[in-house]
Design goal:
200 residues; mainly alpha; Fic-like fold; 56% helix; disordered N terminus
Length: 200
Amino acid sequence: MTWQSPMNIHEPEGATPLSPEMLDGLIPGLTTQQELNEFEQLNIASAMRWAKRSRKLDKELVSMEALRFLHRKMLEDVWSWAGQFRVKDTNIGVSWHQIPEQLLKLCANVTYWQENKTWSLDEIAVRFHHKLVQIHPFPNGNGRHARLVADLMVQHEGRAPFSWGRHAIGVSGETRDTYLKALRLADRHQIERLLEFARG
């Protein structure tokens, strides 16, 4: 018998495709892409409100445990695998078995950047975001997770969150295209476009 998805999934360009195994973790009762998008957004909005008040995240955002916990809070009402690292290679990201090592290394680097004021707060947050997207630790939701991490980092220091192009970045269109191009430039160590986009 052939497995069939409970809904037609149309992922925007640059997103990790949802595999049958990932879709098996979907909370029951959702039957359309629109319902999925709306349910995820409600869960993420709730997580954002929680994260802004969390003293634990304020002190320990730059840790593998906090990053996993934040992803779980973002999507725990939607996906059973929220907060769990992926266990397969995908079209984006490091090999799955390298995820813990790469995240530990990233957190150590970010802590060093913060302690030594290597760059401005904005640039540290955007570089953290970029590297999280590069590692792509979770089955899905990596971009949204990485953007929220960057927002929380600057908000904990009293700054406004990033605008991320001021338009819906999670759907196909000009804003998402600009974001993906900026990420690809950052892959080549050209961070300026991504910084401009984040605050633009």
